[in-house]
Amino acid sequence: MGVIRERHASIELLVIDRPQAANAIDLDTSEALARALDELSEDVEVRAVVVSGSGDRVFSAGMDLKAGQAGPALAINGVSGGFAGLTRREFPHPLIAAVNGAAVGGGFEIVLADDLVVAAENAHFARPEVTHGLMAASGGLVRLAKRLPPALAFELSLTGERIEARRALELGLVNRLVPEGRALAEATELAQQIASNAPLAVRASKRLLRFALEHADHDAWQLNEALSQEVLASEDAREGAAAFSDKRAPRFMGR
């Protein structure tokens, strides 16, 4: 179905597996990703999810334009969570993009929908929709100016030019830059680091960060108070204090 799923302890790996089509997203792949993310949203055992593409050359070329021309373009975008099951989804767990090569068009929009980005040195990002008579309608135009300086966001969106991984790192679009072939391994290590922390605190932190990007400070402070009270009252908060006092590693249970 175009997606490989692997579970490593509390880390889920989702790999777009259409290397013959530059990991482009057709309807079957979009539906498979949507089903996986629907399930993972409710899975309390999951502490982080890593999204990548097969091979070492392409993360994803975005929507399969041949499939789109055949008619199901609206269906590809209309699955649960939007394009690739992700671009319109409020997902509770941390999402990490392991960008192993080119992230183009909708592939770039998938990256922008993730929380953290690990990129290989051979990776690049581009929004060429305008060169094909299209626009980036799956979140690229909504999110890019929040992740890059506005002038550069305009330039990339209106020209279709690409940005290399090292420049993306300098601008803060990428969290970590790694040698070619190491993106998935490094992203998994980052996911494991996150997974070692208290799940309730991690999910609450992600939710508040996302909310604060979209809302006024007054509203963010209200959510801050509600979430902090929930986290403070949790078993994990008590375990964290006890572990610190006992000078041992905490055993967080997500309660």
Count of strand segments: 10
Q: What do the pLDDT scores average to?
A: 93
Determine the N-to-C terminus distance: 35 Å
Strand line-up in the sheet with most strands: 1-2-3-5-7-10
- Unreliable sequence segments: none
In this structure, how is the largest beta sheet organized? 6 strands, mixed
What order do the helices and strands follow? EEHEEHHEEHEEHHEHEHHHH
Radius of gyration: 19 Å
Percentage beta strand = 15-25%
Number of helices: 11
Helix content: 40-55%
Structural class: alpha/beta
The 3D shape can be described as: globular
Structure description:
- The chain has helices at 27-41, 65-69, 73-77, 106-113, 140-147, 150-159, 165-170, 183-195, 199-214, 217-232, 235-246, and strands at 3-8, 11-16, 48-53, 58-60, 95-99, 102-104, 116-120, 124-126, 162-164, 176-178.
- By secondary structure, the protein is of the alpha/beta class.
- The mean pLDDT is 93.
